[in-house]
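Batch manifest, entry 17 of 40.
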Amino acid sequence: MSSKETTPSAGPWAEGVFRTLSERDASWAAAMGEASLGSWRSGVLSARFVELVAVAVNVAVTSLDADATRRHMRAALAAGATEAELFTLVKMGTVMALHSASLGAPILIEEAGAKAPAATTSPHGATPFVDRMKAMGQWNAAWDPFFALDPRWTDAVMAAGVGLYADGVFDAKEMELLSIAFDASITHMYAPGTRRHIRNALAAGATVSEIMDVLKICVSRGVESCNLGLPILAEEVARTRNAAADS
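Output type: structure tokens
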């Protein structure tokens, strides 16, 4: 792969970074370039959807990478993605913070022992959004502990989640593929959700190759280390050299 092939809109590479990498270590750059652009070149997923997945792993609350989010949003729009699709990804990246309660609530119940409240219904009556998530097949058993601890709050969270599945911006298969990206991303690596969404994606008609390409996009986020580190390295080396020359 030549540096000419890697443009600001090609895969995860920021402008000029691959060229800098090639100048420092051509063989390693060639290997990384080939690996990082696999999903962009395979044709398994559309250009639009590849960029949407890249937005997902960067806009996620576990990532919050402004530069990469902007770069991939721009590329997604150029590839035909809609504002509504990108807005939905922002919302998905927001609600994934629920996994803090998935992790903590079972531990709280175990440690509290007899002090933990028994499973109950909301003090204000029904929990319609929890019921809707269950009816849609999107309820996660890992949510049972915090539902038991605070049904009313859980229903409020589910109200935010129901719309993501019900508004029809993405079809069922795309929704599951994007959910895999959020959960499998290197900054999250949430195994229960990854398994659940892979299972749901297969049931919705996704192929093994499509799911693997989503995982490859997650891996390509490693390039952000180059996007961040190489310009800083060049600046600091230049600063050190200039300081030595002035002394």
